[in-house]
Amino acid sequence: MKAHGLNPRIRKSPYFQSTLKYGATEFHPYNGMWMPVGYDTPINEYWNTVERAGLWDVGVQRCIEISGPDAERFMSMLTPRDISNIKVGQCRYIVMTNQEGGVLNDPVMMRMAEDKFWLSTADSDMYLWTKGVACYSGHDVIIETPAVYPLQIQGPRSHLIVSALFGDDVLDLKYYDWMKADIHGIDVIISRTGYSSEIGFEIYILGYERGDELYETIMQAGKPFELSPGSPNRIRRIEGGVLDYGSDILVDNNPLELSMERLIDFNKPDFIGKTALQKIRDEGVTRKMVGVFMDG
Amino acid sequence: MKAHGLNPRIRKSPYFQSTLKYGATEFHPYNGMWMPVGYDTPINEYWNTVERAGLWDVGVQRCIEISGPDAERFMSMLTPRDISNIKVGQCRYIVMTNQEGGVLNDPVMMRMAEDKFWLSTADSDMYLWTKGVACYSGHDVIIETPAVYPLQIQGPRSHLIVSALFGDDVLDLKYYDWMKADIHGIDVIISRTGYSSEIGFEIYILGYERGDELYETIMQAGKPFELSPGSPNRIRRIEGGVLDYGSDILVDNNPLELSMERLIDFNKPDFIGKTALQKIRDEGVTRKMVGVFMDG
C-alpha cells in the first residue's frame, strides 16, 4: 500500500523543483498542496536547525488575504484575540474559532496595510471559512488567496543568511514584525516568525513563477553558513511546545483547554465563539493539554 | 520522490482494512481522508464496472448534516437549485456557489427528514463553508459531520447484489431515492446514486466501527455475481460525462459555463451567488465546457 505518487489534484509549491534537487524524498498533503517533509533523517534535520540553519518550503501555509474598508472589523470577528493594536508591519499568532469555540486554525496574522490582512494558515481551508462568514456578516471585504508562498529559514545562523541576502535592515526586524525586500528583482515579504523555537525568518515570494530562482539564491547565499534543506522539525517543535493543527489541535478543542488564554480578549465587543468560550470559562474546562518532560 | 506513506494526519475510512485485504495498492488524499484508487488496472476496473459490478470505498465523500427548524431555508440559500419540491427519501445532485457564483462543491443532497439534510460532498471542505455561512445568516440550524460513510456498488449486476443483501424492497428505489435498511444489525442508508453512468447504489453505514464487517458481508454476497473491489473509474466517468470537482471543476468555474442551467433556479427569492450568476447570464458566458468524442 502506498499513497498515490504525487497526485496532481494536490498542488505543487513554487519551490517544488528545488526541493527535489536538494533531496526531498517524501511529501505530505497539507492545505491542498504537497509539503516536502523528508530530506535527511529527522535527527539530522533537528541538529541542522538547532546548530546551524535549515531552509524549509512551507508554501503550504496557504495565504488568505482579507482587504477592504471593513477588513479590521471583519478580522476582529474571526479571532478571540485583540487585534486593534496591531500595526502595519506587525504579525500575530492567533486562533480562529467557530460558534462553539472550537479551533478552526491557528494562523499567523500579518497586517499588510490599514485595510489589508494576511492569514498564513495551518492545515484547514480558511478560504472557505472566511468567505462563508462574509456571506451574511455585512462587512465590506474582499477575500482572496494571493499567489504568495513562504519559505522558512530557521536556526541560530538564520540572521546571518538573511542579512547576507537582503542587507542589514533585516536585522532590525523585531520578533513578529515584517518588512518588504527584494533580490534580483524578486519581491518578497520577510517576517521574523517561524515554526521552530530558534531564531528564524519567513520569506514570502510575491508570485509563483520565480520560486526556484529564489530558493537557489538562498541556498547559494547560505553555503558559507552551512544552510541545509529541511522541513518543519517535529522533534524541535514538540521540544519547544509548538502545537500542530491537525494533530495536537482539532476542531473539538477550544483555546481554553489549550492554555491559550493570552489569545482571548473577552472584553472585545464580539467575536465568533465568544458566548461559547465564556460559558466554558465560567463552568471550568474539563480537560487541559499539558507538556511532558522526557528523559533519555 | 514519493508521497509520505499513509500519513496519519489524513483519516482512514471505516473500510480501510478491507480495501487492503482486497488488494488496494494506491490511495489519494480527498476531503482529509485516504481514498483507495487502485486495485487492478484502470482498464480492468472499467470492464468490471461496465460488465459486472464494482464495490468502491467512497467514505471520502464526507457527509455534512444540516438540521433544525430552518434547515430547508438554509439549505436553499446554499445552492442555486430549487429544492422546495424535494421530499424526505429523495436525493438531488446540486452545485454550491460562493458570492461570485464560483462552484465550491457539487454534492449529492439527501433529504433525511423534513428538517434534516445530508450533503455527500466532493473534494472541498463544506463543513467550513456551511458553518461559516451560518455565523451570520440568522438561520436556526445545527451543522455537523456525522459518522456515516458510503460505499458504492456500481455496474449492471449491482441491483442483484443489493437485493440479495437487503431484500427486494431495494429494487423499488427510483433513481435518486434513498431508503433505510440493515444487515446483521448494521444500520445503513441505501440510495440509487453513484459516480458512474451504470446502474448503481450507495450504501452509507451509520457509525464507523462495523465498516469492515459490512464490506466483507457485501463481498461475500457479491461472489456469485463476480463483484470486484474497485474505485471511481476515470475512464467510465469521462465517457459518461460525469464531472470531477477538483480537476474538471474549480472555484473559478461557474455553473453556467459548465452547462448546469438545469441546476439553477433564478426564480428563487435568493441564494448565494444569485446576483453574480444573473450578471454572467445576462452578459453571456465567456467560455464553455464541452465534451469530446475520441476514436481509437
Automatic annotation (TrEMBL), chains A, B:
Domain called GCVT N-terminal: residue spans: 21-268
One family name in Pfam for this protein: GCV_T
Chain residues that bind substrate: E202
GO cellular component: cytosol
InterPro entries to which the protein is assigned, alphabetical: GcvT/YgfZ/DmdA, GCVT_N, TrmE/GcvT-like
Name of the protein: Glycine cleavage system protein T
Lineage: Bacteria, Pseudomonadati, Pseudomonadota, Gammaproteobacteria, Cellvibrionales
